[in-house]
Amino acid sequence: MASAKPRLGLGRVDGPAIAGVPVRSAQRVTSGAFTQISQTQINQIKESFTMLDNDRDGVISREDLEQMLTSLGQMPSSQTLDSMMSTLGSPLQFPVYLTAMSSILAQFASREELVNAFSAFDDDDNGAADVEELREALVGSGLKAEEVDACFKPFVRYTMGRERLLYKELAESIII
C-alpha cells in the first residue's frame, strides 16, 4: 500500500479571463523578461502578435482584440475589452506584447515541475493520477468542473472502473 502523498495547495488567479482562462493581475515587468524564454518561444510570440494584428498596422487595437475573441466564439463585453486592454497597455506594439507575453511564459512551471505537481495525485506512482481528486482540488480553487473535464478528456483512461489522468502526456502537450 502506497503512503499518502501531501496534497498541493492550488491558489486562485485574480484578474480578467481570456476565453475562460484566468489572467493574472497586471504587474510591471521589465523588458528583460524575454531573456528567460527561448528563441522558439519568441518566434511563436511574434507569430501570435501577427495573427492578432488584423489590420497589419503594427499595433493590436481594441478592435483587433474584439475580432479575435469573437472568432473564438466569445462575445466580449465592452467592459471586458477595456479591462484587457488596460491590463496589456496601449498602444500594444510588438515590444510591449513581447515583454508581457514573456513575463507570463516565464511564470509557467517547467515540464518537470508540472509532472511533480500532478504526481501528488498519483498514489500508485504509475504516471496516472486520480481524476476525481484532481477535479475536486481544481474546482475548489475556482475552476469549473466542465473546464477541468474538457482539458483532461484527451488524457483520461479508465482503469478498474476509475478515471485516471495520464499527466505526463498532458504536461508534454502544454509545455511550450
Compact overview of the structure:
The chain has helices at residues 39-52, 62-71, 78-88, 94-107, 111-119, 131-140, 145-152, 167-174; strands at 17-18, 21-22, 59-60, 92-93, 128-130, 156-159, 162-166. The chain is mainly α. It has a three-stranded antiparallel sheet with strand order 5-7-6. A two-stranded antiparallel sheet has the order 1-2. A two-stranded antiparallel sheet has the order 3-4.
Could you characterize what this model shows?
The protein has 2 domains: 79 residues, Recoverin, domain 1, CATH 1.10.238; 64 residues, EF-hand (Recoverin, domain 1). Helix 6 crosses helix 7. The protein is mostly helical and 176 residues long. The N terminus is likely disordered. Strand 6 and strand 7 form a beta hairpin.
Q: What does the average pLDDT come to?
A: 77
Q: Would you tell me which CATH topology of the largest domain applies?
A: Recoverin, domain 1
Which sequence of strands runs across the widest sheet? 5-7-6
Straight-line distance between termini: 36 Å
Oligomer: single chain
Q: SS-based structural class? A: mainly alpha
